[in-house]
Amino acid sequence: MMYAEVLIEYKVKSLDRSFTYIVPEHLKNVIKVGMKVSVPFGQGDSLINGFVTNIKYEGNFGNLKSIKDITDEELVLNEELMELGKFVRDETLCTLISAYQTMLPSSLKIKTIKSDFNKYETYIKLKVPKEFVRSLVEEIKGKKQIEILNELLEKEKLSKKDYSPSAIKSLLQRGIIEEEKVSTYRIDKEEAKERRQVTLTEDQRRVYDEIVASGAGANTFLLHGVTGSGKTEVYMHLIEHVRSCGKSAIMLVPEITLSMQIVDNFYRRFGSDVAILHSALSQGEKYDEYLKILRGDAHIVVGTRSAIFAPIKKLGIIIIDEEHSESYKQDNSPRYNAIDVAKWRSNYNGIPVVLGSATPTFESYARALKGVYKLLSLPKRVNDASLPHIVVVDMAKEAKKRNSVLSSHLKNVLQDRLDKREQSILLLNRRGFGTLVMCSSCGYTFKCPNCDITLTYHKSSNALRCHYCGYFIKKPNICPDCKSDAINDSGVGTERLESELQEMYPTARIVRMDADTTSKKGSHERIIADFKEEKYDILLGTQMISKGLDFPKVTCVGVVSADASLNIPDFRSNERTYALLNQVAGRAGRSGLESEVIIQTYNPDHFTIKMVEMGSFLKNYQYEMAVRKKLKYPPYYYLVGIKVCSRVYEDASLEATKVYNHLKSSVEPETMILGPSTAGVFRINNVYRFQLVVKYRHDAKLKGALKEADEMYINHKTVYLEVDMNPYYI
To answer: Cα(304)–Cα(567) distance, rounded to whole angstroms?
Structure first.
């Protein structure tokens, strides 16, 4: 008898284990470990999907059910990914099934019985010998039928869509030809169009040679290169080297916006050997790209965070661009960090990982200085292009001139660039029209009924929206409290700034890029392509425009409110602000044109702002590290964030104290537990959230204590825990 252990998809954590099933006779020769199957489960024997985790031939199991079917013979998680799932489970304290589900595109999730996502093209080919066809040609009267047959005498098969349906139907009915369906890819790129060999600069060659010379081995390199130093070209040369050795590559980028421009470069260089994975693809496109990788039809994967789980064969290198980006950390379960997963795959395959950034995280930079990572640098821009001149504007002084949004200097520079027919980028990391809507008569403010946050006004839809839960209402004209008509909106978002810019510069072509304007499929690519083709003069956007984009004609970058990220109550706020400002400043002057960056702030003497102005990453790093050492923050201490959540306030408060007491009695004495306190936004979607923060250096007991705490609430009716190892935000 043949048995299979199947890990089923089920929401209950206590059922996160494998169940034994009989393998029916007709599946014995095809079933494999890692394969997706459907099995009967529960009293009603309803079908549910799962993964085969083990196959065995002996055992005394009693009365067992049989596997119903294999849901996808092609989809098999290989040994590496099966082991990787266990690593993700252990590191993030998630269920094993959720770890495996994370590796799959949404069209292939376990809980969904497979529907046919394959795309086919239908071909026609001869069903009879060619000699017989030649004798038939004279008898057939239809010109279109004769045309088809003559072509089939020369070619093995023809695409059905290119020929007359009635002629094909007649030939099919006579049994002369037959149809053949061939699976095709929705994203089907041609062979590479440009094989130009770019000559690396001296610095680029030094970096490339050092990585290649490291040979086989799980080395992690931190490539610290200024904006415009040509990191992407180094990545491409490394991938070319890996491909010449018969191996494959994964290239991660943090944002969909960035992936589009890089993907275009990769398509030109590597053609159909590239597969892309990111959330903007349709379900069918994700399915195709995943199978393209699985079948070995593509050897270079470019994508966002989840692409790190690509089932690629003979992996030779992993490259993570803009490694400082918080988007590499998933903020819902499983809360994995793509960089940690990359290092696991590096160790498993004995291959290098390259982490690149102009502003690496302080944790990564500290590891590099200690020799845990190998530090490489690109200190100059390609072609010795100069970095842009940075000007810091004191908005407190500008406010006295009645310049509340744009300073006089920024207005003048924008006009100058319009006159010169050069381009400008404006960063305002706040979408919407007005950030606060209130009654100026009685002070009533409009808040989300589900979350502890004010609603943001969006003029295009005349709606007040919550950016957490999605709640919205039409903007009222009458105050619900005092019944006056004194409803006003204040604050500036990207939508309002766009409107004001259009009034200031009526002839300027302005495009806005934020979550509201990029919600439709293809909108990211369209805006980026149009701006690069100089169809617009000014690109206005949120932080999605700050990383990696390369526009040769951009000579002005304006940061409208540099204080927005400084004022976030988080120990990483200064680090993030430096990275954001440095990155967006790097969009200017990449082609060598004289450029200027204007940073508007109410805190011109703030140390971080000064360091951006000086362009000194190292001094900023040293200053922040001294602060973190005193306050026991990473990289000197590790962190764990724990949220105790409930729709009942009293339950959340009571259980948060219980979790604190459990951890305090279970961990090492040196481990610090802070809280419980209310989380940043205390109530989201009517769920109250209390937070505890654990600081530790070495604690062998901690993970066990966290698992015990998590298990305490597996079956709790009103309370659940969210445990985040090494969180980006606390």
So the answer is: 28
Q: Are 694 and 640 in contact (CB under 8 A)?
A: yes
Report the candidate in 90, 48, 89, 91 with the shortest Cα–Cα distance to residue 71. 48
Rounded CA separation 683/688 (Å): 5
Place of tokens 């002070």: 443
Q: Which residues, at least 6 apart from 428, have a Cβ–Cβ distance to it below 8 Å?
A: 492, 493, 494, 497, 540, 541, 542, 560, 561
Amino acid found at 436: L
| Tens digits of residue pLDDT in 117-142 | 566 678 888 888 888 888 777 777 78
* Residues forming beta bridges with residue 694, ordered by sequence position: 640, 673
Task: Classify residue 513 by its DSSP letter.
Answer: E
Q: What SS3 state is found at 8?
A: strand
| Domains in the chain, CATH or no CATH each | 3-108 (3.40.1440.60), 128-175 (no CATH), 202-383 (3.40.50.300), 385-435+491-627 (3.40.50.300), 442-482 (no CATH), 638-725 (3.30.70.600)
* pLDDT tens-digit series, residues 645-678: 999 999 999 999 999 999 999 999 999 999 899 8
CB 540 within 8 A of CB 558: no
Overall residue count recorded for the chain in this entry: 730
Give yes or no for a contact between 340 and 91, defined as CB atoms under 8 angstroms apart.
Answer: yes
**CA–CA gap between residue 193 and residue 191 (Å, rounded):** 6
pLDDT for res 111: 45
